[in-house]
Design brief:
The chain has three helices and no strands. With about 120 residues, the chain is an all-alpha fold. Helix 1 runs parallel beside helix 3. It starts with 12 loop residues before the first helix and ends in a 7-residue tail after the last helix.
């Protein structure tokens, strides 16, 4: 019998318990990741306002390249696929730049700042 054909009742209770324990840990880690991302974006919003106030460009390719290299090294040291870490950071950087562009546009147009 393959695992895809097994019903929940066929699984050893100790396996179900271990699976539940691991999933609880995953849920806790996911919550921590979300909270850490929220804190990161609070900081990047402040950077966006500072850049807009001083008419600095929303993107900083040199900093982004340094951050990607740094994150790839951290990923390698943590035994995480560095290509995955780079894709993840590129996604975050794209969102940050989008936010910075929006902040700059709102600053130029005198609109109220957005909370994203």
């Amino acid at each position: 019998m393959t695992t895809s054909n097994m019903s929940a009742g066929d699984v050893d209770p100790a396996v179900r318990e271990e699976l539940a324990r691991l999933r609880d840990s995953i849920d806790n880690i996911d919550a921590a990741v979300v909270h850490m991302l929220a804190e990161r974006f609070k900081c990047t919003q402040q950077v966006g306002h500072l850049k807009a106030k001083h008419q600095l460009p929303p993107a900083d390719p040199a900093r982004e390249a340094r951050q990607i290299a740094r994150l790839r090294t951290l990923a390698e040291n943590a035994k995480l696929d560095p290509a995955f870490a780079e894709k993840f950071l590129n996604f975050i950087i794209g969102e940050v730049i989008r936010h910075h562009e929006s902040i700059a546009e709102n600053t130029i147009n005198g609109a109220a700042p957005t909370a994203n």
